Amino acid sequence: MDARLRAPPPGSPAATYRALVKEAMRPRQKRIYVLAWIITYAALAATQAPTAPLRSFVVLGSAALLASAVVALLLFRRTRLISAVPARTPQCVSRAALVAHLVRADDAWHAVALHAASGAFVALQCAVLQVCLRGWSAPLAPMRYIDAHHAYYVNEAFLGVLAVGTTVGAVYAVAYLLLVPGARRGVPPFVPAALGTSLRTRCLAALQRHVPRALGLLVAVPLLVLAYSLVRDAWWSAALRVVGVETSVRRFLVPSFRVPYAPGTLCLHALRVTACLLVLFEATHTLFDVYWTHPLRAVPPRLHDPLTALLGGLHDPHPFFSAHALAELAHWAQSEPARRHALFEDVQQQHGRPMAFSSVATACRRALDALAPPEPAPKAAPPPAPAPQGPPPSTSVWHRLAAPPEARAAPAKPAASAPAAPPRASALWRTLLYLASSLWARLPSEAQHVLFPQTLYSAFFAPVPALWLDAHLLDDRARACWAAQALQHLVLASLAEDKYGSVQPHVPALVPTLAQAHERLMAVRRRAEAMAVEADTHLVREAQLVRGALAAAGADANAATFPPSLAPFQHEMQHAWEAYACVDYEVSTALRGIVQAMAPYHT
After folding, report:
1. Any stretches that span the bilayer, and where are they (predicted)?
2. Taking the CB of residue 354, how many other CB atoms lie within 10 A of it?
3. Alpha carbons 598 and 585: distance in angstroms, whole number
4. Is 258 within 8 Å of 149 (Cβ atoms)?
5. Taking the CA atoms of the chain, what radius of gyration do you get in angstroms?
6. What would the pLDDT profile of 104-146 be if each residue is shown by its tens digit?
7. Cβ contact 29:7 at 8 Å
8. Which of 103, 279, 519, 544 is buried most, with the most CB atoms less than 10 Å from its CB?
């Protein structure tokens, strides 16, 4: 079991701070449920008639939808946040590796299944609500009365909307895992810039930014309806061969074909249900991200020893609780003079812990040292075993007979156990890879270029700058940012408030830590820029080859001109770096501020 997931001993400062965080999160959880119910009610009412919001069925339906789909998503996110930590192993830095990693991950499949089931339940709830409001003649009623058969048959529109809701839910989960940084790795979605903003402002801004972007998945609905229209006859013919034409379960599984099929009407109903589904999903995830990661004031003033509790949270190995502790420390250092005085005046080793600022400096240095750690050097190959001196002893029957009796009687040493043979599947896979690589190497370079361009390799199999930045900086960016803020404000405030001089002995060690963190940040950025430049160079080379081929064929080469600013990988890298620019700013600002403030005392 990972040490970061192990619960601290009861009664320890870390356990006390965890209990304080959970206590402070209870009002936020209630607000999440209230806001989620309001959004669910509005989204569900928007799919019905204009007078639907005034009916009690909509209130009951939204409450049922909240209890089944929304609460399940919130519990899944909470479990992942508390019981999962970022992996210590190197992360995937190419798109193909990321996809392969998600395919092999069990929790990714659990997320897809949960979102698909939630999508199906949203579609079912919309259909049930239509039946409650308009009766069994509603367009999405699960069963429909067919006059020609004098019986109820399953509604094809209901089945189509149910299938679309399930598919869109699964597609949303896949897109969330692929596009949201840290969604798969258990990284708490802390935002370093959230320390100076209010919770209401951040929540409204996040909803306005995320919900319209999620509605872009509505383009999948016409595509799904079109695909269903193309395979509709073959699908239901196969279903009738399995179920039977005259069986008693036929009307519950296969719709009646006496009703004309209207793909346009089906698409309109599916669009409304899908819009409700996407708004519900995105609002739920956004509310959770904002309310669970916004900086807390977890340590109440009435606590007997608030400083010891905060220090326990700073040294908590779990990233969720230590990040909240660092954010609270940064708030103390910036806006709480009384708490700063208590920290500076704690110069005795109380309760079996070191002095307060010594513990704070250790925690902040640990957070800064964890930012962009250097990659481990590749392991050197073991030296070859020395060759045996002299010829090997012969083991023929004549030599054994000529040997003394004790040598003949000595039992032979058992041979060293050979390593287990690899499974047949892995051996077959290696053989196929060897054959494929051999065939690829025998192809001419022109054929390789046509079959698999370098641009395609750079897009899917080469390291991507954005994934490279996420793999090296995402896990610890918030903690490093808040640690730099706390150190800067504490050191600057100590010049006027630290009457015992508890801060000054630690300054010579803090400055190199900040400088090294800044250097590692710049090294990661330079490496990502080099990747982007290399990929864009291959893209420009591909464009030149296309232009040359057109000119050789007698076509107009100017028709294939490309803008000189064509650098998609560089633009992607710059967009990804915007999420980490605040960390570089805070680290460099803290370094500059501390050095300038301490310069008069070291001249």
Report:
1. 32-51, 57-76, 112-137, 157-179, 214-231
2. 15
3. 20
4. yes
5. 32
6. 888 889 999 999 999 999 999 999 988 888 888 888 899 988 8
7. no
8. 279
